[in-house]
Hints:
Helix 1 (41-66) runs antiparallel to helix 2 and helix 2 (73-84) runs antiparallel to helix 3 (120-130). Among the domains are: 5-130, no CATH class; 166-257, no CATH class.
Amino acid sequence: MKISFLFIVLAFFVFIKSAHAVQSTVTEAEGYSCMGDEKSRKRTEQDAMIDAKKNAAEYTSTYVKSETQVQNFAVQKDIVTAYSNAEVTIIEDLDKGWYKDPSAGDCYKIKIKAEVTPDQEAMKRIALATAGTGTEGTLSFPVAPPPLPGTESPTAQGSQATPDVVVVPSEQTYVYMVPNTTGIYFYDGFWFRYYEGYWFRAPGYGSRWGMVAAVAVPRAVANVPPEYPRYLPPTYTRIPARDLQQHWQEWDRTREWNNHDWFRNELKADVVQQRQALIQHERDEHQKRRERISQAQEQHRLEMEHKGQIARQQQAQHADKLDHPKSKKEKQERQQKERKQKKKKKPKKAKQIKKEQKRG
């Protein structure tokens, strides 16, 4: 059976300080079924839906395990159980229809968007197994991004403060980014964020961020380096956040920014090349700094290890010296001398006790 997935993770994999929190994942999956001799069309459609739900849960489980370093077999087993018994809720039928298979006859295919919620009891066991450890036991999930600037607390009106943006070119479309900030994008009605090697997505700037598989990040977003806004000129036009929310669809449809000189300048091949070259140069310099720091740390580690070896050798030499026959003889003579001194002291003590008894 042919199975195809386009996996879009919207789960928030922060694992699991809030002990009984259950993480859900939104994914797209396809299911297939063929009529055969005994199936009705309705039953075939139902079986295709069951297949799609099963595939959604299985792929989510596979993704979670691939993004997690698990050494504990019991915990790994609980992860499998959590998604084997997952609740799959259909959000939307994306595509469905009948087709003719040369070998199987009339078949039905359905593509769904579904929310996969793992089994709560299994997640509780994982929480208990990983509680009380600095690294959440043997599990290591992608790090959740910290709050964005302006979202640490609600504004006076009770909503999160969405910043103004700049528009940057990406192929034949517009991508909006937060100026002087790294890796925060707005595209096609969603906010995207690149953080610590992972991509996240949210419906609003101050909303909860869910992790997105890299293959599911829109190419228009992935094509723009996260550092791009930092290399725009200071006079580059900023777009108010309110205008963005109200007009971004209209701007895309009418190609609004292509009418402005400052954006047309940004489209020029030499300008794009210059931006890319500067970004790559800074990345190279940053990598060199990291390598120098790493080399210095490694050198320090080797020096400390060498000092430790010398100290251990000196301790071993000292122990060998104590075990030397001459040392043993000296030790025995010293012990004998001490015993003799104790014997000499005893009579004196006994005489003193008798004198005290007579006086009494």
